[in-house]
Amino acid sequence: VAKTSLTSPPWPEVKLPDPGEEAKHHAEVVQKVNRMIAAGQYGRLFAVVHFASKQWKVTSEDLIMMDNILEAECGDRIRMEKVLLVGADDFTLVGRPLLGKELVRVEATVIEKTESWPKINMRFWKRHNYQRKNIIRNPQTVLRINTIEIFPCLS
Amino acid sequence: RSRLTDRFWRVQEVLKYARHFRGRKNRCYKLAVRSVRRAFVKSTKARRQKKRFLRALWITRIEAASLEHGLKYPAFISNLLKSQVELNRKMLADLAIYEPKTFKSLAALAQRRRQEGFLAALGDGKEPEGIFSRIVHHY
């Protein structure tokens, strides 16, 4: 077939590495990371947690404030289960989309349950003698992340 | 006869919100009332627009970071979503700022998924059946 402008695709041709060798390489990397986790050769861990319909980048001794009420008393320990990403200095574990519960453990304590500062909602139409002022105070909760732990159960 | 006794405090309630304004609006009640009203209305509307602005900011940052690794923003985001990584733009922007190594690995993941997608789109590389190609010459 003669060469036209449409014979080859517009993107550059790339060859993917051999699947067998790739699988070996992947297994090696997984073993290495498992050994590192088991030996405890990581410094500070950070995690991306999905909580209260928001994603938070969290480390230990972190304070988090959310704009809603939690059904937990002050001083309760909470375990956050939806972890999307965990990382240290040399390796990161990316979840697709979540990481397993046997891999990561993120613990937090409820510190404070307060209201936000009084926010003012005002509506005004000019020349129509219409103005409404509403002061709104949202409930807020403050959590402190105590620890992030990982366990060497990769496969 | 009934006289207003707390006019001072009623006026102070409005002026306290105008203390940091410029000019006579921070001292004179008549001017301050108008400015404070506009300030409140603008702040209510801005609370809705802040979400839009922040999202655009995150997208700009992610675009800059992914261009450093040789990927464009639409390619990066679409390939990340296709590999079932559901990090939102706020997190990606924070990771790009504070965890450059993690962002580099995410960019590599998106690049690899992109190449696999191209290969899947090409298919076998054979011609479809029953079709012949020939070049038309115009003279």
UniProtKB/TrEMBL annotation, chain A:
A GO-annotated cellular component: mitochondrial large ribosomal subunit
Region of interest: Disordered: 1-22
Gene Ontology molecular function, alphabetical: RNA binding; structural constituent of ribosome
Swiss-Prot/TrEMBL keywords: Ribonucleoprotein, Ribosomal protein
GO BP: any one term: translation
Organism domain of life: Eukaryota
Recorded family membership: Belongs to the bacterial ribosomal protein bL21 family.
Protein known as: Large ribosomal subunit protein bL21m
Organism field: Pterocles gutturalis (yellow-throated sandgrouse)
From TrEMBL, chain B:
Pfam families for the chain: Ribosomal_L20 (PF00453)
Keywords: Ribonucleoprotein, Ribosomal protein
CC per GO annotation: ribonucleoprotein complex; ribosome
GO MF, any single term: rRNA binding
InterPro entries the record matches: Ribosomal_bL20, Ribosomal_protein_bL20_C
NCBIfam families, per database record: rplT_bact (TIGR01032)
UniProt record similarity statement: Belongs to the bacterial ribosomal protein bL20 family.
Official protein name in the record: Large ribosomal subunit protein bL20m
Organism encoding this protein: Pterocles gutturalis (yellow-throated sandgrouse)
